[in-house]
């Protein structure tokens, strides 16, 4: 199995910055894509950033130019730098990855427990 542990959430004023981290551990053979999603109260979970194993990233229009995803393959860790935060960015942020382990044949999809980000106006 794969465990994803997120950190870096918290309370910040509008216009501020936060950096989220997500470290993957377990019997991992290979990690493919990694991403960050968020879910605000009463809303569906949505993608906010995605990065391939080769480092190609993409973002939805709502965060493009403000959020930056990166990864350290040696540490099985993905980061999300969030700048110019807005109150509408308030949500629980979840880390997601596709990984192959010693116990699986193909790639499985794994989620972290989530970390709260609150942006005050």
Summarize the structure.
0% of the residues lie in helices and 60% in strands.
Your description of this structure?
With 121 residues, this protein is mainly β. The protein is built from no helices and eleven strands. The protein has strands at residues 2-7, 10-13, 18-26, 28-39, 46-51, 57-58, 67-72, 77-82, 91-101, 108-111, 115-120. The strands form two sheets. Strands 2, 4, 5, 6, 9, 10 and 11 form a seven-stranded mixed beta sheet that branches. A four-stranded antiparallel beta sheet has the order 1-3-8-7, with no helix packed on it.
Number of helices: 0
Report the end-to-end length measured between terminal Cα atoms: 40 Å
Q: What form results from the Cα inertia axes?
A: elongated
Stretches with pLDDT under 50, minimum 5 residues: none
- Using DSSP, what is the number of strands? 11
**Percent helix range:** under 10%
Largest sheet: 7 strands, mixed
* SSE pattern, N- to C-terminal: EEEEEEEEEEE
Structural category is mainly beta
């Amino acid at each position: 199995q794969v465990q994803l542990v997120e950190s870096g959430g918290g309370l910040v004023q509008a216009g501020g910055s936060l950096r989220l981290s997500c470290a993957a551990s377990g019997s991992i053979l290979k990690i493919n894509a990694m991403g960050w999603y968020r879910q605000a109260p009463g809303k569906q979970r949505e993608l906010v950033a995605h990065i391939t194993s080769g480092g190609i990233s993409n973002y939805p229009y709502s965060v493009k130019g403000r959020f930056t995803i990166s990864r350290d393959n040696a540490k099985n860790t993905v980061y999300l730098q969030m700048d110019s935060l807005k109150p509408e960015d308030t949500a629980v942020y979840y880390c997601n990855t596709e990984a192959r382990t010693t116990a699986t044949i193909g790639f499985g999809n794994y989620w972290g427990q989530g970390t709260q980000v609150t942006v005050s106006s």
